[in-house]
Amino acid sequence: MQLVPRWVLLSSGCAPVLLIGGWTTAASLEGPDYDPLTQTISVLAAYGTPGFWVMTGALLALGACHLLTAWGLRAAATAGRVTLGAGGVATWMVALLPAPSSGGSLRHGTVAAVGFALLAVWPVLASSGGAAPWALRPATSFTATALMALGGAWFLIEMHRHGAIGVAERVVTTVQSVWPFVVATSCLRRVQDRERQTTGQAAGDRQRR
């Protein structure tokens, strides 16, 4: 297993903080007219809204976090790292192609859907067998991707019934932003376990001599 630099914990750990902090601050700037239960995050990033710059900045920083994490997460399979990085680029596009303050946007909706798909499938593409950290094992990775897919289906259902769209979107995007940190933590923990095992074996060899 290749080593994972410790700074990956910072880049991956900042992702959910930036996302949640961004939509919380932007929503407070919007005031009572914004309903987080039924309105999407994209509404906060719509050009001309009070929280536009806050939410846009948070999305740009989130994309950068995904790119940095993909670069440093060398224990993951290359296909998964590339997909996570592409998800970061898609997050930038979501920020740079904001939805209008009223009505929909095909361009924004398309890049948002692509970004969701990339961040949903990267866990299963990053998985590896053998003695991989638990978060990169096939069963764990498949479960993560399946949960994100179910969250996406829930979001579509809420959109169709004009229900709790904001809740569904926040749950899904939170899971997607947290998972890279889970993987990074798992990888570094495996490295630490191996280092302790190696140190213990070396100490045992010295005692036997």
Provide a descriptive summary of the structure in words:
This protein has seven helices and no strands. The chain is mainly alpha-helical and 209 residues long. Helix 3 packs antiparallel against helix 4 (78-96). It starts with 6 loop residues before the first helix and ends with a helix.
Largest sheet: none
Q: Helix share of residues?
A: over 70%
Provide the low-confidence segments as ranges.
none
Order of helices and strands: HHHHHHH
Distance between the termini: 30 Å
Number of DSSP E strands: 0
- Mean pLDDT score, rounded? 89
Percent strand equals under 5%
> Structural class given helices, strands, pairing?
mainly alpha
Gyration radius from CA atoms, angstroms? 20 Å
Tally of structural domains = 1
Which properties best describe this structure?
209 residues, mainly alpha
Q: What secondary-structure arrangement, pairings included, does this model have?
A:
Layout (H helix, E strand, L loop, with lengths): L6 H24 L10 H4 L7 H21 L5 H19 L9 H21 L11 H24 L3 H44 L1
Summarize the structure.
The protein is mostly helical and 209 residues long. The chain contains 7 helices and no strands.
